[in-house]
User: Which sequence fits this backbone?
């Protein structure tokens, strides 16, 4: 039997959050899953940094799987083809691979768990999606 993964436990410590991560307005607490799965999956707790706000940049991730579970607070996201979606404590959301999105705002007490595969994924900035136009109306006259 091959050992594709290792057993791991991650206990919370006072100084276990790091400012190193994808977004400067968040802090990240690695849950040890990347090492346990040999890079197949990354899992971390994300929390809002005090007095920091998202800039609302459109972007997308080159990954196979990404989902988030909101532990505390709320966040407002916008997704291409979906529109604005408010996530709150208890919300779980799956972002399909390559979907363009952006975070617009969040509460100061926001905490989320994010799981992404593979662990080493790339994020690309993107232009805003083209605005959907409503069908042209014909005037009677």
Assistant:
């Amino acid at each position: 039997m091959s050992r594709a993964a290792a057993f791991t436990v991650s206990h919370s410590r006072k100084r276990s959050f790091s400012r190193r991560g994808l977004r400067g307005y968040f802090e990240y607490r690695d849950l040890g899953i990347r090492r346990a799965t040999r890079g197949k999956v990354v899992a971390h707790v994300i929390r809002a940094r005090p007095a920091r706000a998202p800039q609302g940049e459109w972007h997308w991730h080159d990954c196979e799987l990404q989902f988030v579970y909101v532990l505390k607070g709320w966040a407002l996201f916008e997704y291409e083809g979906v529109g604005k979606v408010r996530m709150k404590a208890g919300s779980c959301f799956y972002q399909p691979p390559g979907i363009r999105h952006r975070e617009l705002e969040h509460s100061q007490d926001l905490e989320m768990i994010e799981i992404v595969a593979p662990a080493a994924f790339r994020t690309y900035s993107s232009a805003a999606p083209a605005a959907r136009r409503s069908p042209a109306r014909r005037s009677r006259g």
Notes: Residues 26-125 form a domain with the Jelly Rolls fold (CATH 2.60.120.10). The chain has a mean pLDDT of 84.
